[in-house]
Amino acid sequence: MDKQELIGKIEALRSVMSQVARYQPLTSPEIQHMSHHLDQLLNQYDRLAQ
């Protein structure tokens, strides 16, 4: 996966997570799962950027 594709996935997940967070607490399992996945994507981006 290249940087641009990864950035697209990160932005899409951030958007979805933001929308879900309007209706669920940040401690909900769904938000926690999305946050974990976002962390993984950001770590992958960081590795590519080095």
From TrEMBL:
<dbReference type="Pfam" id="PF09388">
    <property type="entry name" value="SpoOE-like"/>
</dbReference>
<dbReference type="InterPro" id="IPR018540">
    <property type="entry name" value="Spo0E-like"/>
</dbReference>
<protein>
    <submittedName>
        <fullName>Spo0E family sporulation regulatory protein-aspartic acid phosphatase</fullName>
    </submittedName>
</protein>
<dbReference type="InterPro" id="IPR037208">
    <property type="entry name" value="Spo0E-like_sf"/>
</dbReference>
<dbReference type="InterPro" id="IPR036638">
    <property type="entry name" value="HLH_DNA-bd_sf"/>
</dbReference>
